[in-house]
Amino acid sequence: MTVLLDTAPPSVYASAAAVLVRNWTGSSTVPSRTLYPHQWSWDSAFIAIGLRHLSVRRAQRELESLLGAQWGDGRVPHIVFNPSVPHTAYFPSPDFWRSSAAGAASGAPAGTETSGLVQPPVHALAAWLVHRADPAASERRGFLQRVYPRLVAWHSYLTGRRDLGGAGLTANVHPWEPGMDNSPVWDGPLSRIEPVPAGSYRRADLDHGDPADRPTDLDYGRYVRLAADYRDRGYADDAHAFAVEDPGANALLIASEHALAGIAAEVGADPAPHRERAARLTGALLERLWDARDGIFRCRDVISGEPIDERGVAGLMPLLVPGLPAEVVGALHATLTGPHFRLGELPLVPSYDLKGPAFDPSRYWRGPAWFNTAWVIERGLRQYGLLGDADALRSAVVSGAVESRFAEYVDPFTGEGHGTRGFAWTAALALDLAMTTVTAVTT
Q: How far is 303 from 371, CA to CA, in rounded Å?
């Protein structure tokens, strides 16, 4: 369904559009001109979802640009580096990852420098929504025909080489991969990692962000250790010191697999394998990660084989998954609105348990509310007919984004912005939710 541009309040439309125009580089959108001056993987997927309301062609280019840096083994790297940006502007920079050399055996592109990690697979869902915004234009350009084989290869990598637990779910091998970098959920698995020596690298993020809002030096030292070890193994998916099955990443994979079924039907391929894979993944998600006692999905530490006893927002994101049992949906909704997350009492959803021992309302993923996770949860609530909460969350995202000047994340109690401002996915997703109240679920 095509969405009319005049359905969003003019102030929201104009201010969100201004952020997306300012952050556009000519082929893709940077999350932030200062803190994040390259192209990020799941950022581009969320950005494309909002861009479809401004320019379907630009939304298509956003995804095609990212997929153009795909590796031969199917992985979509979490950063695609802009060669015109100085290496000192961001760390780890291209000379740290050395993807074209260290990743050659895994099919890293020779002419484009990337990271070797991945991020949650929102891309097929984004491609499907971009197509649905203007099917005629999509068909004229052959958009789905071009991206479909790349998306299939991407999902095959995640469910093949990254099925480290052997039960069908994809696993993440670095805290940056689930997208929730310094979540307290990772504290236990990270405690096994010896950090690199202090002073052996320079954190460029502290040039543009308040240290009180950013991960600690100890965490960063462990991140660098894991990334360097992965690089030095040629980005081979074996012998990982950190490996987790994350319910948020797997929920987005399932939603995108359902989207791939729709894409397959449009391009003349068989949608049945995608539906079958989505069903298998859903079964594994419920069997491996669902905690019926506490009404939340848990991350699983693949190394120890045990669930991680922390409540993070990723454990609520499987509301996005179609066809969950009614008792699971009810329990998730009770957890979301209960004392640990307090949706309805608070406008947005904190990234970590409000009653958790490591909760911090301003430090990155250790408590602040993020707009992309709210978008996912709003979509899930609407899918299951929980319209009152969905409508309230939708309004909170739009108003909170504008009032915080499109902050990267906000204090869940006060709505005060933290991180960078003019953050692209905040603008894109606020725009998407502002555009209409009747087309939130179109897959």
A: 31
136-190 pLDDT tens trace: 999 999 999 999 999 999 999 999 999 999 999 999 999 999 999 999 999 999 9
Task: Assess contact for 315 and 299: CB atoms under 8 A.
Answer: yes
**Under 8 Å between Cβ of 249 and 178:** yes
In a domain, 442, yes or no: no
Active-site annotation holder among 246, 408, 411, 432: 408
CA dihedral 334, 339, 342, 344 (to 10 degrees): 70
Q: How far apart are CA 355 and CA 233, in angstroms?
A: 40
Q: For residue 368, give the nearest of 389, 355, 357, 352 by alpha carbon.
A: 352
Domain that holds residue 282: 5-435
Tally the domains of the chain: 1
Check if 181 is active-site. Answer: yes
In the prediction, which pLDDT does 8 show?
54
The pLDDT assigned to 436 comes to 65
Instruction: Say which residue the tokens 């995108």 belong to.
Output: 256
CA atoms within 13 A on the CB side of 255: 28
- Write the CA distances from 30 to 61, 68, 188, 425, integer angstroms: 13, 16, 32, 9
Q: What is the CATH number of the domain that holds 426?
A: 1.50.10.10
| φ and ψ at residue 114, rounded to 5 degrees | -140, 175
Residue 179 resides in a domain: yes
Phi, psi of 297 (to 5 degrees): -85, 135
440 belongs to a structural domain: no
Among residues 43, 113, 134, 181, which one is catalytic? 181
pLDDT band for position 97 (cuts 50, 70, 90) = very high
Q: Taking the CA atoms of the chain, what radius of gyration do you get in angstroms?
A: 20
